[in-house]
């Protein structure tokens, strides 16, 4: 089954012939009075609606197990809670800000060390110590869209007995399937493309490993950061259009990238593979598309504020993946927790703008960008 069909048809045959699944709101479920057993017992541990969503999440990824959480951060925290006292996790310095905060402020209290490295692509055997139990990867990176070779990281990490956890939020299983490349855990902020309408906070974890799956089920039950039934249902419905939305968003993004590259008043345009031929080759070998997030800088002669004020369609807001285009300034809006030196080092200038392209008609988005660029000329 192809992914667009799986998104629509993984769940079937509901009571009364309904073509969409029911929502089960019960917090508690009756048990058999003799055996004291039941399919479900209490909503936090498992419930029918979340279970249906988790079936879809696993199916889209071709994974054995799927888990739904109340946010992307709850999903990431659950994945990292598989680490024990004394363990170390390697992460890219440019990792998502919330993940940085969790690793920097919360994990040390649990005896787990996070080591941030500038370039995961340059990782070698020397970077691993006996304590290194996991490597956390984001490819493409945010907002530079730099690419990391997943097969290479998997090979290195596994040789040293470390897990590979991939945050696949920017690609989704539509464009990249890290488990098939050997990764152990995939986390996603479902708030972004999976939900896709900027109206739902959720997270997902998928894995093929039964032991890791047991640890994630424990994280759901013991830490409780699970997705509620109504939100699980809404995500099931949103996922039905994920491949369709992303296809349109990506086509729009490709057009915008080509257009902005033609303009002399735009300085640089970053899009997966744009940093080097080598990164382009790696990305093409591990993903089937380049997604719908790009970043760019205006030429120095242009006024950024006037450009942003003149833009009609993209909302000036953090987040990404929604049907509506969003634009933000990473230095002040998403990567403000990094020091200015760390940002400069990661290639995130004060002027860089990140655009998450929506499903609007590309002609309107291009005309809007053009008129805003004209308005920004000093
Ligand atoms: C948004 C985001 C997260 C966190 O997800 P929430 O749903 O906001 O908790 C994690 N990783 C990436 C790459 C993100 O963009």
From TrEMBL:
GO terms for cellular component: cytoplasm. It comes from the Bacteria. CDD domains: CGS_like. One of its GO terms (biological process) is methionine biosynthetic process. GO terms for molecular function: homocysteine desulfhydrase activity; methionine gamma-lyase activity; pyridoxal phosphate binding; transferase activity. The modification N6-(pyridoxal phosphate)lysine is found at residue 192. It catalyses: L-methionine + H2O = methanethiol + 2-oxobutanoate + NH4(+); L-homocysteine + H2O = 2-oxobutanoate + hydrogen sulfide + NH4(+) + H(+). Its cofactor is pyridoxal 5'-phosphate. It is an enzyme of class 4 (lyase). Keywords: Pyridoxal phosphate, Transferase. The keyword Signal does not apply. Pfam families: Cys_Met_Meta_PP. Its EC number is 4.4.1.2. The keyword Transferase applies. PROSITE patterns: CYS_MET_METAB_PP. PANTHER family: TRANS-SULFURATION ENZYME FAMILY MEMBER (PTHR11808). Belongs to the trans-sulfuration enzymes family. This is homocysteine desulfhydrase. It comes from Brachybacterium saurashtrense. The lineage of its organism: Bacteria, Bacillati, Actinomycetota, Actinomycetes, Micrococcales.
């Amino acid at each position: 089954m192809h992914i667009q069909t799986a998104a629509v048809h993984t769940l079937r045959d509901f009571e009364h012939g309904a073509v969409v699944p029911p929502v089960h709101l019960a917090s508690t479920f009756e048990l058999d009075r003799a055996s004291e057993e039941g399919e479900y017992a209490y909503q936090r541990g498992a419930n029918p609606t979340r279970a249906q969503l988790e079936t879809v999440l696993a199916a889209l990824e071709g994974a054995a197990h799927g888990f739904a959480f109340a946010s992307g951060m709850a999903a990431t925290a659950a994945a990292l809670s598989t680490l024990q006292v004394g363990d170390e996790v390697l992460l890219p310095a440019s990792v998502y800000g919330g993940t940085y905060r969790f690793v920097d402020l919360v994990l040390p209290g649990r005896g787990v060390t996070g080591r941030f490295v500038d370039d995961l692509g340059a990782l070698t055997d020397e970077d691993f110590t006996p304590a290194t139990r996991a490597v956390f990867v984001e490819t493409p990176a945010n907002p530079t869209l730099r690419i990391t070779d997943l097969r290479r990281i998997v090979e290195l990490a596994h040789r040293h007995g470390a897990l590979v956890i991939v945050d696949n939020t920017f690609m989704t299983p539509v464009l990249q399937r890290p488990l098939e490349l050997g990764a152990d855990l995939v986390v996603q902020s479902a708030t972004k493309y999976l939900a896709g309408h900027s109206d739902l906070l959720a997270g997902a974890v998928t894995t093929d490993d039964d032991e890791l799956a047991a640890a994630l089920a424990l994280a759901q039950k013991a830490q409780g950061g699970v997705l509620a039934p109504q939100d699980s249902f809404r995500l099931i419905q949103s996922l039905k259009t994920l491949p369709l939305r992303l296809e349109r968003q990506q086509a729009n993004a490709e057009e915008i990238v080509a257009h902005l590259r033609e303009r002399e008043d735009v300085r640089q345009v970053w899009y997966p593979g744009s940093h080097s031929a080598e990164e382009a080759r790696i990305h093409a070998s591990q993903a089937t598309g380049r997604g719908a997030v790009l970043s760019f800088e205006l030429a120095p002669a242009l006024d950024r504020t006037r450009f942003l004020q003149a833009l009609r369609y993209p909302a000036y807001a953090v987040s990404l993946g929604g049907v509506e285009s969003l634009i933000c300034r990473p230095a002040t809006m998403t990567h403000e927790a990094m020091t200015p030196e760390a940002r400069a080092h990661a290639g995130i200038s004060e002027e860089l703008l990140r655009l998450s392209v929506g499903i609007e008609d590309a002609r309107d988005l291009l005309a809007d960008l053009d008129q805003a660029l004209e308005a920004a000329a000093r």
